[in-house]
Specification:
This protein has about 450 residues and is of the alpha+beta class. The protein has 12 helices and 18 strands. The chain has 2 domains: about 5-200 and about 370-460, Zn peptidases (Aminopeptidase, 3-Layer(aba) Sandwich), CATH 3.40.630; about 200-255 and about 300-370, Alpha-Beta Plaits (2-Layer Sandwich), CATH 3.30.70.360. Helices cover about 35% and strands about 20% of the residues. The two termini are about 20 Å apart. The structure holds ligand BES and manganese (II) ion (MN) (2 copies).
């Protein structure tokens, strides 16, 4: 492809500044206080797509936040790539742990990003990553090198379960028809060893409530004589793993696919340093299911984790009290074949069954979704692999990720197409965490690599 790296070099400052402007808008989908900002972000994305030369751009209303849709159809006989991304971001909390404002983007150098990284909520997940596609399209249109048709679908509810997107996809199969779906919302191994994500975990997210006495009690007058919901909840949660760190919910592993020895050996070839992993997190040991390596535990194995737990007195000083209620939010990461609705039911049944007398338990399911695995012999995978090879000078390694993008399995079901996950973030970019950032190197490399995917995909498709 002609001039891609020089185009990126020449326009580097502008590309960074445009992303910075997008990152200034706090599009937090989880908090209604930001709803106007979420809507403004959709508009900004729409304008950006118009500016680069899409011939049809619209804001599609849904029951929730709108979806920005755009297309550039150059010839109906050519293949069509559908780019998906999300313009919403996670809440920035805890604010006091940010070294600069979450919505006041700045560029700073780090050990892993000697060329600088853009620090802001959403820098990597996913504004920086979907915006690479907007800039890659700018290049292809400006230099007359767009080899096929392209559609964009950028949503505003990914971080809260993509409910409106499901609604939209089910109603717009024709409009969204495509030959491959391309997403940059995952990571890669390192800046010298790119990887292509070939799997995502599914998810079941539930909230539990344990109720004891009908009101908060004096912990001296009543302590020892009535069930303390916080004690009980802690015990119930602790019982969800056994001494081997297996999950104890009956039936939980029934559909889990065990990988063959060969597949596990293949996985183990990916470069990984346990020492560096521990050092980066300041921990003296890793922890997880017996019989599996760290990389297996966080990708091909299902998990159960408490994401939040509360109840009773958590303010300053000490208050002697037995709370009436205790709560926890629990996520289960699932692997392909495990059905998230079935797992949610198994959890609910089990959790209710282990509640002792003296308390009542309520389980409320939140969102969820199916896992995903994709083959590495598809045209899409091969095109992506060639593209990375050109820009990084190394063949990317296929790697299953532990994260979830539930909508990907829905795409396959409703649109009958495969998704290629070309992520350019690093695990250390602190997504969902304070000081989220995205390497300038990664951002620009993404913009360079994407047009090559379009080129190779179109060629291989012939
Ligand atoms: N982009 C992430 C998912 C991700 C990140 C996958 C890195 C692989 C590597 C996405 O925005 C996300 O945060 N997904 C949620 C699930 C969603 C239903 C809230 C997740 O994985 O927790
Ligand atoms: Mn994301
Ligand atoms: Mn996310």
């Amino acid at each position: 492809m002609e001039n891609i790296s020089s185009y990126v070099q020449e326009n580097k400052e502008r590309f960074i500044n445009e992303l910075i402007d997008l990152l200034k808008i706090p599009s937090v989908s989880a908090d209604p206080a930001f709803s106007q900002d979420v809507l403004n972000t959709a508009n900004t994305v729409k304008e950006a797509l118009e500016k680069v030369g899409c011939d049809h751009v619209e804001i599609c209303e849904t029951p929730g936040y709108p979806i920005v849709y755009a297309e550039k159809i150059i010839n109906p006989d050519l293949p069509t790539v559908l780019v998906y991304g999300h313009y919403d971001v996670q809440p920035p909390d805890p604010l006091d742990l940010w070294e600069s404002g979450p919505f006041e983007p700045i560029v700073k150098k780090t050990e892993l990003h000697p060329e600088g990284a853009i620090f802001a909520r959403g820098a990597c997940d996913d504004k920086g990553q979907f915006y690479m596609h907007v800039k890659a399209l700018e290049f292809m249109i400006a230099t007359d090198q767009l080899p096929c048709n392209v559609k964009f679908m950028i949503e505003g509810e990914e971080e809260v379960g993509s409910e409106s997107l499901s609604w939209f996809v089910e109603r717009n199969q024709e409009k969204l028809s495509n030959d491959v779906i391309l997403i940059s919302d995952t990571g890669m191994i390192s800046n010298t060893q790119p990887s292509i994500t070939t799997g995502l975990r599914g998810l079941s997210y539930v909230e539990v409530e344990v109720t004891g006495p009908n009101r908060d009690l004096h912990s001296g007058l009543y302590g020892g004589a009535v069930a303390n919901p916080i004690n009980i909840l802690s015990k119930m949660i602790a019982s969800l793993h056994d001494e081997n760190n297996h999950i104890t919910i009956p039936g939980f592993y029934d559909k889990v696919e065990e990988l063959s020895k060969e597949e596990r050996e293949e996985m183990a070839k990916a470069p990984f340093s346990l020492e560096a992993y521990k050092k980066a997190l300041d921990i003296d040991a890793v922890h997880g299911e017996n019989g599996y390596t760290t990389n297996e535990r966080n990708s091909i194995r299902p998990t159960l984790d408490v994401n939040g737990i509360w109840g009773g007195y958590t303010g300053e000083g000490a208050k002697t009290v037995i709370a009436s209620k205790a709560y926890a939010k629990i996520s289960m990461r699932l692997v392909p074949n495990q059905d998230w609705k079935e797992i949610t039911e198994l959890f609910t049944k089990h959790f209710e069954s282990i509640a002792p007398k003296g308390v009542t338990v309520k389980v409320t399911p939140h969102h969820g979704g199916q896992g995903y695995v994709t083959p590495i012999d598809s045209i899409g995978y091969r095109a992506a692999s060639k593209a990375y090879n050109d820009t990084f000078g190394v063949t990317p390694i296929p790697q299953r990720s532990g994260g979830s993008i539930p909508i990907v399995s829905l795409f396959e079901k409703e649109l009958k197409s495969k998704t290629i996950l070309m992520g350019f973030g690093l695990d250390s970019d602190a997504i969902h965490s304070p000081n989220e950032h995205f390497g300038v190197f990664n951002y620009l490399k993404g913009i360079e690599t994407i047009p090559l995917f379009f080129k190779y995909f179109t060629e291989l498709k012939k």
